[in-house]
Amino acid sequence: MDQVRSSCFYFVLIALCTGLSVLRVAEAQNEANLKGHLQPFGESGTRKEIEVRNVFPDPQDFLVEYVQNLKPLKLSGVAKNSRAVREWTDSYLLALDVPSQSVVGLEIGKKESRDGESTEMHFHDFLRIYNQTEHYMVDNVPDYLSPDVNVPCSLQCPEMLEKGLAFAMMWFSSGGTKSVVHTDSFDNINCVIRGEKTFVMVDPARDREKVQLRFEGSYSDIDVDSVDLKKYPQLADAEFYHVHVKAGDCLFIPYHWIHQVRSFHSNVAINFWWNHYATMAMLEEKGESACQGHCDPDLTLDKVEIYRQDPTFDNHNDVRDWLQNYVLEQPMTLPTAVTVVKAELGADELPLEAEKLVLEMFIKMDVNGDGQFTKEDHDKIPEEMWKETQRMMVTVSQMLKEEEEADRREYAEYVEADRRDEL
User: What is the pLDDT of residue 423?
Assistant: First the structure.
């Protein structure tokens, strides 16, 4: 009898092991059949191409055809004659007269993490170490480099330049950098000065929810080197635009388009950011008279205004999009409304009156009165209420600045009083 039981036990064990092996083989085959599984971002789904032109469109055509329609565009060779592309060797940059107190912002770690380390360093010190380290420069174009940087002809719209570009950012590394999957709150022309880059872009109008961006910073936790399609199966149905650019090329990335960037070889790029909705409002106001004038191929960055301002509260549409990013993730409750505003303003606390304004606005925006602000509420809010919300955010931001200035004055008075006591 014991021998029979033993034989049955071994038979069951063999059957279980065989079954598990079959399941593992089937699972491995299923994974193998998932196109792009555990491969870099953009290898799943469908690959798409974007339009390529060899000259800059004139400003009005560019704003109407591409910016207004959120249509990406590769511009091949359009920046090849700029002094930056022609002359920015390391020896040229090291020979520049750079003020001793001038430092540039650096990221540490070529595979971007939004929790990664950052530091500052004199530009010449960075040039001496960047080829042997993981350091790469991410900062505004320094004043001493701006005379070498040409402003793209497509951005030479007098009404745009009168207000100024939002930012001109410089990215400088020894190559091998990998950004997170993210969006920007600006329209963007990225021009490669040295080396090469590959952009993988996703149209948010079609595939925004498939990428699952986080509200804080509008970026994804997807591992860009090894995309887990079991965790993100919806990416198998997404469309990806792959664009390779080299020195002298520029790429227009429309407002809020999702993208991921890789750099190759010693690498320098400059991107020009500007406010999408402010530009659209200017076009609507000016009509056919907008952006009249000729392109100056020699116009350099030192000759234009850079106003360096986040667009979130510039226009009610910016506020609408900002809050839409949040409610796509989760509903907003009364307590989280204040938390979300504090995070956007970079504040630990809000003045009591400002907090009261936020709560009153939230109650108005909770259309069905269930204590939650959801995507359904968001989509029902009329334009006038978005304008009211934008005015409220401007007021709250101003209240915070005034309180911070008062705190600085109080601290300065305290330090001065303490100094007098010591005397």
Answer: 67
**What is the DSSP code (8-state) at residue 11?**
H
Task: Say if residues 157 and 63 touch (Cβ distance below 8 Å).
Answer: yes
Q: For the ranges 186-200, 297-311, 349-363, which has the lowest average pLDDT? A: 297-311
- The reported pLDDT for the residue numbered 379 is 92
Bridge partners for 241 per DSSP: 48, 201
Strands 250-253 and 73-75, sheet pairing: antiparallel
Give the E-state strand segments of 22-163 in sequence order.
46-48, 51-53, 73-75, 103-108, 117-122, 135-140
Contact by Cβ (8 Å): 253, 200: no
347-379 b/e with 16+ CB inside 10 Å = b?
A: beebbeebbebbeebbeebbeeeeebbbeebbe
Q: Is 218 strand, coil or helix? A: coil
Query: Tell me, what's the pLDDT at 1?
Result: 54
Phi-psi region of 25 (alpha: psi -120 to 50; beta: other; left: phi over 0): alpha
162 band by pLDDT with thresholds 50, 70 and 90: confident
pLDDT confidence bin for 28, thresholds 50/70/90: very low
CA atoms within 13 A on the CB side of 386: 20
User: Which residues, in sequence order, are CB contacts of 20 under 8 Å at separation 6+?
Assistant: none
**Strands 239-246 vs 51-53: parallel, antiparallel or unpaired:** unpaired
Phi, psi of 251 (to 5 degrees): -135, 130
Q: What pTM does this model have?
A: 0.85
| Structure tokens, 141 | 């174009």
DSSP letters, 405-421, are: HHHHHHHHHHHHHHHHH
